Amino acid sequence: MRSSSHVLPLGVLTALLLSQVCSGIKWLALSHVPASLHINQTQHCKLMPGMVSSQAQLCRSNLELMQTIIQAAREVKKTCQKTFSDMRWNCSSIDIPVDTPKYRPDLDRGTREAAFVYALSAATISHTIAQACTSGDLRLCSCGPIPAEIPEPGYRWGGCGDNLHYGLIMGSKFSDAPMKMKRAGSHANKLMHLHNSEVGRQVLREALVMKCKCHGVSGSCSIRTCWRGLQDLREIAMDLKTKYLSATKVVHRPMGTRKQLVPKDIDIRPVRENELVYLQSSPDFCAKNDKQGSAGTQGRQCNKTSSGSDSCDLMCCGRGYNPYTEKLVERCHCKYHWCCYVTCKKCERIVERYVCK
Questions:
Q1: pLDDT at 156 over 60
Q2: Residue 239: enclosing H or E segment and its boundaries?
Q3: Contact (Cβ atoms closer than 8 angstroms) between residue 92 and residue 81
Q4: Terminus of the chain with fewer CB atoms < 10 Å: N or C?
């Protein structure tokens, strides 16, 4: 008898089907799929939220890959919100209810926020697949190839490297599919999203670094076994955030025999391969404005002592802020006992917080 945890309940499917959205990152709606559910039947693929036909086809031919893609969708949402927790725009647009038909306009329009989300999404899906190969979660791939270069004396290749090659192939095949459809919105938006997705994958390629483990008597590290592994996704997101802050506004205009994206203010040069680009200016995100996709900053926590983007002056847009106190319970007076455990007491302290008016 098949366990009910392997079957998609009708109520869940109904909610997921209602979460269809209208942009090329609509597959992020897969983050709403409950972690307890397992995609193990081909008919599940046509019921998954946010996927276009070619993505559903990939799902049917590689069911086990879908669990990894669902995990990637959750990682995009979590990582984006952590990365922008100190900004007025805090990526709340990604966390839409399942019964909402589309994302907020800040992601539907060609803003720099959309540029970041597309780049992060492309990087995350390939990152997650590459590491799933390493951990053995995907049977169709394994460890990454051993590097061709000869290591330095005292180093040797070994271990199990992240399979970035497979991650990039399958990740781009899935995440770029909506932008390659004929009815995928304006040509300018498609060019923008495809460009920014490739920027995300480029940052991911640069995040493949050498990692080593020491061997030797008494930890002498006389020999190191090394492999190529990916940096943490949070570090990749921070690199993309830097590119977000310096993103280039572009226009869609004829260049030779076809229209291309060129920098709006310096259109004498082409768009650089490593820069994020956007078509539409963003609102200041100070006040709630559903038409512009701004959730506003009222009620957001701010940092009274900061001079950065999370400062009460900048976060609250000059409206002021209200203080409140919060009681924290923490471990304290910890003592190590031989052998081998630690005992701690619980201490309470009152801290002052601030929220925007």
A1: yes
A2: helix 233-245
A3: yes
A4: N
